[in-house]
Amino acid sequence: MADSTQNGPMPGGAGGGAVQFLMANKLDTAMWISRLFTIYCSALFVLPLLGLHEAASFYQRALLANALTSALRLHQRLPHFQLSRAFLAQALLEDSCHYLLYSLIFVNSYPVTMSIFPVLLFSLLHAATYTKKVLDARSSNSLPFLRNLLEKLNANQQNILKFIACNEIFLMPATVFMLFSGQGSLLQPFIYYRFLTLRYSSRRNPYCRTLFTELRIVVEHLIMKPSCPVFVRRLCLSSISFISRLAPTVA
């Protein structure tokens, strides 16, 4: 979900109020800038306007910018670093830690378009929320066209988060396929599985867990139809049982 900032709009002129707001919230502003840069790099990877070779470099830049954003957000959530198992366990509960790990998993791998969408969309949602706060600090009715776009984006937030969760799930078999095609490392599927279990157990974002449940219901509905071949039904039921055993226990 989008970050929350406790500091409200500050008094001043149309431009001065926005500048004062940005200066008063330096850490949030730094994350806003890094998210905008992530969006920029992700867009140039998805739409390789500067060529395929440059697109690969923009892929890495987007993931590195996302890693920076995640590290800043983690520092904001847990400002007092401690080299202990208790601190690590607490850090692993944070979504920002999950996506710091996510960026490190894919930053040096073969570019996969599917892997950039969660980074792009999360950055877009968070940046849109903070942009609206900047506009509010500037003026209550400034840039109505941009405000309208931000409102439409916010109205579709639930669908976007479900799409992100769907990407997170289907990247698991994609990492296995990359391994057998020679485009991934041996450790990548195991590390990504750990990331996926963290997303499944997330306290702030239940969409990964919800999508797993919805996919299971859909598959079970389809395979129970009389037209479904018996071997397909058995294969799907075995796969569901195997995946269910791998799922972590959620408190």
From TrEMBL:
The yes or no answer to whether the keyword Zinc is present is no
Q: Which Pfam families match?
A: TMEM33_Pom33
The protein's UniProt keywords, in alphabetical order, are: Membrane, Transmembrane, Transmembrane helix
Q: How does it sit in the membrane?
A: Multi-pass membrane protein
Annotated GO biological processes are: endoplasmic reticulum tubular network organization; membrane organization
Please, which domain of life does this record's source organism belong to? Answer: Eukaryota
Task: Give the InterPro entries listed for this entry.
Answer: PER33/POM33_regulator (IPR051645), TMEM33/Pom33 (IPR005344)
Record keyword Signal present: no
Q: What is its main location?
A: membrane
Q: Where are the transmembrane segments?
A: 32-52, 99-125, 169-193
Q: Where in the cell is it found?
A: Membrane
Provide a GO CC annotation, any one.
endoplasmic reticulum
What family is it from?
Belongs to the PER33/POM33 family.
The molecule here is called TMM33 protein
From which organism does this entry originate? Atrichornis clamosus
Classification of source organism: Eukaryota, Metazoa, Chordata, Craniata, Vertebrata
This protein's encoding gene: Tmem33
